[in-house]
Structure formats: C-alpha cells, structure tokens
Amino acid sequence: MIPLAQILQRQAVWRGGAAAAGLPAAPTGFAALDAELPGGGWPAGLVEVLHRAQGMGELQIVLPALAALTSAGRRIVWLAPPHLPYAPALRAAGVRLDCLTVVRAPGRRDALWAAEQALRAGTFHALLLWLPRASYQELRRLAVAAQAGPGFALAFRPPEAAGEASPAVLRLALEAGQRQFAIRILKRRGQPLAASFPLPIERPVFERPAHALGRAPLSATPAPGARARACAA
After folding, report:
1. Is residue 116 within 8 Å of residue 145, measured between CB atoms?
2. How far apart are CA 153 and CA 161, in angstroms?
C-alpha cells in the first residue's frame, strides 16, 4: 500500500483546505491577483473570465501575462475575437505581434473545434477564446484538451454563465470601475474566496482612446527588435 503522505504529495491530488501551491502557473502581472490564485498566476488548463460587455477593458487583466510570454518567445493565439486585435494597443502593452496568431471562425462549433485542435497541438502557451454560450460537454472537451498543453486557455464569457456548472480550474467575474476592476473569484483550487477585491489597472496612453480589441487590421510588422528572436513552441 502507498502511504497517505506520499499520495498527497502528488499534484493530481487536490485538498479542499489547501492553497494548491506548486501547480504550474503563468504570473498574471498583478501581485494582488497572483496572491489569490493557486500557483501564483494563471493555472494551466481552462480559465473563465466573466464580464458584462465587450470593450470594458477586460483584456487588461491578461495583457501582462501575454507580454511576458511573447517576450520569452512563446506563442499565443486569439480565437474568434469579436473584433480584430488593435495592434498599437497590443504593442504598447509589450505584446510581440510576431508571436500572436489570430484565428477566425465562421461559427460557434467551428471556434470550439479550432480551440480544441490548437490546445491538443501543444504549440501555444496561451489561448484566448470568446464564448458567448457553451454547454458543459463542450467546455469539458476544452478543459481536457487544455490539460494536455503547456499553458492556459482563457475563455471570455457573459456573467449569466456564473449560474452554470463549469469544468474550468478557475473562474473570475469582472466589474469595471474608473481605474480598477472589482474581481470576484467564483471558483479556484483550494479555499474559496467569498469577497471581491479591487485590482488597479494601468491603461496605455494613446492620442485617442483605444482598446486592445479594435476595428483596425492587425499589423504584420513585428515589434522593434523582434525579428532576431523566433517564437518557440
């Protein structure tokens, strides 16, 4: 028989009262948020971010992680975004555009299929997906596929999804303020967090207001200095 202490040392075993430390995670770039997340960042697997409206600044919560990943030559993919990414905003946030792949999908099923294939390929360290609606079975397929990859899959979903069951390892709900988010952790490994907490957001300064999801076409020009470094799988 295997001793209980040896079994509990395995990462696959979750203890409800534990903080689930030691799990692989990508730092979010926000110390206050990392402090509340098991592993100190975005956990490997499926993550859900629930928000009320497109363009409320929801991408600000993930841009620091994307900038860090692409700076290290890691690849990221945006799948079925509601608008084309706005290249100047991404570049200002430190995201290398030559490490970003944008995939369009004509329909919801196409987007889900493409997301599953991208995750199973294991060549991306972050996948962003916009899912207005999805069944538990569809989310389960994404969660299983995400577990096989090296990074995290982040799905943007409407707040109504909070009342639905989900296999995601982490679920956050965002409420936007003037210069901060109010973040509520709906689900995480370890102890639950009952109260929401504020998260200050620094937005890039432009000549005119801009959001990382805009209507301008994505620039094909890499960020300065990016030509000498190839993106890695």
Report:
1. yes
2. 17
Handedness of CA 221, 224, 228, 231 (dihedral sign): negative
The answer to whether 143 and 45 are in contact (CB under 8 A) is yes
Say if CB 157 and CB 183 are below 8 A apart: no
Q: pTM, whole model, 2 decimals?
A: 0.80
Classify strands 152-157 and 170-176 as parallel, antiparallel or unpaired. Answer: unpaired
Return the H-helix or E-strand segment holding 203: none
Q: With DSSP H G I counted as helix, E B as strand and the rest as coil, what are the percentages for the chain, rounded to 5?
A: 25, 20, 50
Distance from C-alpha of 80 to C-alpha of 64, rounded to nearest angstrom = 21
The pair phi, psi for residue 16, each rounded to 5°, is: -60, -35
Q: What is the pLDDT of residue 217?
A: 46
Burial of residue 140, with CB atoms counted within 10 A of its CB: 0-12 exposed, 13-18 middle, 19 or more buried: middle
Report pLDDT digits (tens) over 5-17.
554 444 444 444 4
The residue count for the chain: 233
CA 223, chain centre distance (Å): 22
